[in-house]
Please model this.
Amino acid sequence: MSANTSGLVGQSVKRVEDDRLLVGNGRYVADVNPPGVLHAVFLRSPLAHATITSIDATAARRAPGVVAIFTGSDMEAITHPFPPFAMQPDLYTPLYYCLSSTTVRMVGDPVALVLAESRHLAEDALELIEVDYEPLDTVASIAEGLSPTKPQLWEKANGNVLYDHVHTFAPGNESVDAVFAGADRVITERLSCPRQSNQPMETRGSVVEVDPDTGHMTIHNATQSSHMLRWIGAALTGKQSTREAAKGIIANKERRKAFLAGAKSFLKENAEGLKAQDNDGMKSQLKADKSFLKHANLIGVGLLGKDDYPDVVAQDIGGGFGAKGSIAREDVALIAAAGELGRSVKWIEDRVENLMDGGQAREEDLTLSIAVDDDGTFRGLKVDLVIDQGAYPGFPVGAPLASAIMKVMFPGSYNWDAFEMRSRIVATNKGKYVAYRGPWANETWARERMVDIVARALKMSPAEIRLKNLIGDDQMPTAMITGPKIDETMSTKKTLERALELLDIDQFERDRDTALAENHYLGLGIASYHEAAPGPPGYWECVNPGTETLLNEEAQATVETDGSVVVYTSQMPHGQSHETTYGQIVADELGVAIEDVKLVFGDTRRTPFSILGTGGSRGGPIGGGAMKYASRAVREQLVDAASKLLEADVADIEIVNGNVHVAGVPARGVTFAELIAQTAGDGFEATRSYRGKGDGGWSVATHACIVDVDLDTGKVTFPRYLVVEDCGPIINPAIVDGQVRGGVAQGIGAVLYERATYDDDANLQSATYMDYLIPTSMEIPEIEVHHMETLSPGGENDFRGVGEGGMIGAPAAITNAIEDALSPFGARITSQYLPPTKILELAGVISPD
Amino acid sequence: MKAPPFIYHRPETLDDALALLAEHGDEAKVLAGGQSLIPLMALRMGRPAHVVDLGAIDGLAEITEADGAVSLGPLVRHEQANRSDVIAQHAPLVAQTMPHVAHRAIRTQGTVLGSIAHGDPAAEMPAVVIATGATLTATSSSGERTIAAAEFFEGYLDTALRSDEILTDVTFPAWPSTAVSSVVEVARRHGDYALVGVVTTLDITDDIVTDAALAYFGAASTAIRVSAAEQSLIGSSPSREAFDAAATIVAAELAPPADIHGSTAYRKHLAGVLTTRGLTAAVDSIGVPA
Model:
């Protein structure tokens, strides 16, 4: 223990996980190979919408190496359908099983599961399954989703519009319409964001390991949320019906006792999740679909004894960007199959499957109206949002939660007199919509795009109109028009002012003139926003009542007999560097070297319970807070024990380099190991629960970029890209820079390269990396990241999340810059996706085919 | 994403390889660098029952020069060509082309002749072959035949090679000292197949263009030359006006198919833009003012 042991927070400490990951010693799901494991592949629908008239696996069952084949109807007999989660009034949530048995609703819809001795043999057998499909008319776009003449995806829903709700916020004396009527003008534009796809380096995957002696299951899975998978996995594959389980329990005394113990622990562990089942949402769902009650299998989980739960072990994960926070239909099928066969099974998704069914996002139409006075003062905002949810809702987080967050965040950091938003969710025959890095990000894109459109109409500069309307420090503390409290940490205006200082506008204007000689057009774009990371207390009550309780994070810190420190988190690192940042926090609290801190994560047998795992920018603020207070409690125990042993006052004890000693007298000290050896008792260990403090919780940024548009080729490059970000006190600046840059890279991808493309019949056109284009290092410019660190007046643990922001700001800044570049041609950018063909069409160089 | 079953052959002589092809015909595919064949098999879009790997046969990776003409054997990798002094000196257009082929990792494994035999219309090498009028040698167990560049590419991923033949040689004719050339392309991302690209050669004597080749990739179902544009250049001095006139002809003549990466109108326009850029780049290399 000789390394620097204090003041690590705030330093660019090198990532401790890289020693393992960069030399190939990471342990990913694909590396897990239990003896005798069976390899799984899924047969997927080639059609976007069809009725299955027959399915015959006879020949496939006889194929070499095949052990079992499950069809949709096989799975319906042994699993439960996915339940609604975090429901909202007026939302229809379809019930669906892990495999489809009678209707397929998207290309890639899984209809059968083959288990064989090798992946090759499984894929060979897959081709022998004969499925007869009767094609149905498809719903391929938002417009078709809204059309009453198109076939309905879900029989019990009311058309394909599964949600339609208007939220109104007019805190003053005037109604929204009155504010609009009173403004000098109203400017309206319809914007659309085409479909993107979360693309982690590692695809999804699961190995369900079955103990041959006990039948107990351990699920090795690339999941952002191991406790959620454990809970839902148990719930959806529970073998007994609620009634059968209850009869068995009542009849048998031992079982009765076991049940009571199990129910007690279930209620304790899941109290928050159960509370979150919002009553209004439940009522509206019951009204829409009475069969829901029959499948209220979550209640049945309470009847499982604790030993009936599988364990979930997630280790290294090659990215997720939100998609791996979903519980996959494949996950449920694999658990059920392993349970039936009593054998371990393994599935590693291939890239074609991942592009079809691994999760897609952001396909939204947004019509915005801004009521504004001629001097540029914003008065009112109206939004009409339609989300294309695809065929199946992402579970648990998908379009409903994205729309609920948008409803709160759409007004952004500006002052408004009134805000109204209509949200609709439509079902279409496309891949499922999941959370993708800043799942609500299109509120920033659409609003910041619209602010530029308004500025242009009023002949103001984009900076001028923003500075006029942004909420400034002189108004703090205050609240967003949609409810959440804001204080000085909502520093959007300051980040914009800083960005304007950093931009050399005069030089830009000169470069702009020079570039014209080469038929290149330069443009400057800015975008400013704040994001809940994870938001102040009360924020989630504004989003979706009941969900605030899900935010909680617990951490445990333990001193081992060798004096090392082991800390346990329910956060699930998948690229965010938790081992380093939590190591920094714990090392500082305990006065030890970061090398002596070991982080345990992902293993439900060892880590504290959290329903969400990693998601919602909670890792730094909430997980980090729990970590800090758990290790602080252990420090107090160590100091207390040392004071007795050394016969010194507690106030005189300090810990330096792992030596607990009398202040200023290192020789009068003991190591952690000696303390454990020499003091009786329960050892040094503490668990702390945390949910955030103070009114902060906002992360903030302004993105500013200069684009260079080559009007010969339609190619766009970035002479300059800068981000001024404020995530409060920074744990590790290098890691923050990496998170911001990664997010911007995905934003560049969204605008210039990436599109999950479907044709008019909902056939996927981008099922390989030849057609779904992710930008490489050659397409990404140097991204300057400038930090501001505004402290929250009331916040003790003031870290704020920073993983999502890069992607929230980038599409707006880039599209604003491109519109600026193309302003000589009067171009109006209304789509987020601008490939070279579109650029030249916007500039009038070519006509659409 | 695993290939369907196939029988893997690794002959140690060319004769053995040819005998296997003679025996299995349409059922067999030749494996050299595998950069196109293996992905197609993994996606189960290519399903050969027999794969004949040339990897164990000695002497197939030769680059030779005779009277200025440069010949490449079937196992010459792109990266080997990229680093070859013989190619740099005697086949400068091939050397110019190599950095445009995919990414370095692919160039290290993929072969020049494999790219030609695959006949992807968006790849660079087929365009180089038709621009230079290279000669292709196809060998079967019944003997050799030579195929002229203009006869080789028959359609999308379709060439004059028979299923019992291996493309054993490409010979680029001697490079005139008066010739200049360029390769320009636009792809969605660095290293992707080009949206459109053009291989340009000009023979210039006393400031007059005496010969010209404009060979486009990504612009039709095969690599394609636009002879009207070439003819428009011959006999005149290289100039911006002449280049733009050629570009106009190209944009009018070509009707590239659309896909999700670019419309027909876009690719037509791009073919014109790249014509001017390619001609300018070619003459820039010898300092002739455009």
Residues 12 and 57 of chain B are 5 Å apart (CA to CA).
